[in-house]
Structure formats: structure tokens, C-alpha cells
Amino acid sequence: MQSKIENSKVDVGKPSQRLKADSMLLLVAFIWGSAFVVQRIAALQVGVFFFNGLRFLLAAFFLLPFVLLGSQRSFHSLKRADALAILLPGFLLWAGAGLQQTGLQYTTAGNAGFITGLYVVIIPILLTLSGAQRPRPAIWLAALLAVSGLFLLSTGVKFQLNIGDALELAGAFFWALHVLTIAWLVKRLDVLVLAIGQYLVCSALNLLTGLAFERETIPLIANAWWAIAYTGILSVGLGYTLQIVGQREAPPADAAIILSMEAIFAALFGWMILDEALTPIQLFGCGVMLAGMLLAQVDTIKRQQEAG
User: Fold this and answer.
1) pTM (global) more than 0.90
2) What mean pLDDT comes out for the span 264-287?
């Protein structure tokens, strides 16, 4: 759910390393895609905020040993301003994850996966509108494809707005803002310290919100322990770590395409496990959305390949 194509130089002259990195990123897409099914099941069993609070807390504890073993100085060198800056991605995670998990109560895992993936289209649009980059025709074409595909996927041409899909789309904007924020902070902070910090902030906000609005769901948490463990350790903790490691070696073009497979895996697992079916029109909408998602990354991929 947090795929970010990093600006790092890669060595494309070592096929074995590239294949290993690509395989690692494919595993990340697989884990993230399957997590939508797990989250869909949990959304019908336990409160949104307690579920998110516990899984992000678990992810923070999962990553903590890696920081203690390899980046002990990072805690001591953390400036107050940087520590306060971590509050922003933590808040964005809280908002994005909350909208995503709430939306999963009303829509399918496949829909959620594809709509969440629209953040790769939203990011360049936000950069263009803010003046950070010059407007490009490809971006507006990508946006048009994404919106058209979303319409087909969500309505099946029946002109009915699914509230769950609308929530997922709102969440995609927060995921986009989160990626842009991380891209800024990762230049100033240790990656794992930043990850743990934002997870702890997100967890605290979720648990406080849960205590305020979901106290009656506390007894149900025990029934969702496996979902919390899967999404906390595998989806957030392991998935994020493998993504960073994989993108150190994989060319940006590989990373962009492979991580987009998250949406495909979400739909596949939704069909296999939850018996979620898509009509031919909806399948066509998925294809149109995927085309828009990839088109939005074309120029970025070219620039990164030239820099690498």
C-alpha cells in the first residue's frame, strides 16, 4: 500500500542481482495484494481503528530490532524538528488507512486494490498543480484513463456510486500525499527510524480514535489476531522493508511495473478466497485503470533511468 519509486542509482549490468531484486518486489506486490483480502475479512469482524492501531504498532515492533542492530546512532542524532516532522506522515497514514479499511466494509478487495493504486496517477497531478513540475499531456491522459476505468469498475455502467469505492478513492489522495511527504523526509532521516516513527504515530492516533468511538468492538479484537499479525508483520513490516531492499538494485522501470501488480493480486485473491467476481465491463475498467497508472509513471521512469 506504500509503494514509492525511489531516486536511487541502480546497476542494470548484473542480471542476477536484477532478477533477485525484481523477484523481491514481486513478492512485495503479492503480499500487499493478498493483504486486501485479509483486511476485507477483518473489516467485517472488528473496528477499523483498533485493527489499524494494533497492526501498525506490531509493524513498529517488528522493525525495531533492525534499527537497534544497524542504526543505533539514528535515535541519538534525531533532531527535535525532525521528530515533529514525523507526525505528518503518521497522520497521513492514519487517514489513508482509516479510509481504506472503512471502504473495505462496503466494497470488494479487488476494487480496493485497484482504486488505492490510483495514487500513482494522483501524485504527478498534485505535483503539476502545485507547480513542482511542468504540466505534461501524458499526465492528463493518464488521469482520464484512470477516471474512466474507475467509473467502469465501480458502477459497471449502472450509474450507481459505491460508497466503499468513494472512500477508497479519498484514501488514495492521502496515500499520494504520504508518498510525497516520505520522499521529502527520507532525505533527512534514517529510513527505518522514519518508518517506525510514522507507524507509532499512526498507531497512537488509531488507538485513541478507537477508544473514543469503538469501545464496544474491543472484545472482537481476539477474533482478528491473525489478520492483525498478517497485515502488521507481513504487509507493513516485511513488505516495506523488502520494497526498500529490492529498489536498491531493481531499475525504476521494473519497480514501477512490478509494484503495480499489487492491484492484480488483490483482484485475484478476492476471486480465489472471497469468491468476488467481476463482470467483463469491470475487468475492462481494471485494464483501463492499470494503463493509466503505468502511463503516469512513464516520464518519471525515463528520468530515473537517465540518472541511473
Assistant:
1) no
2) 88
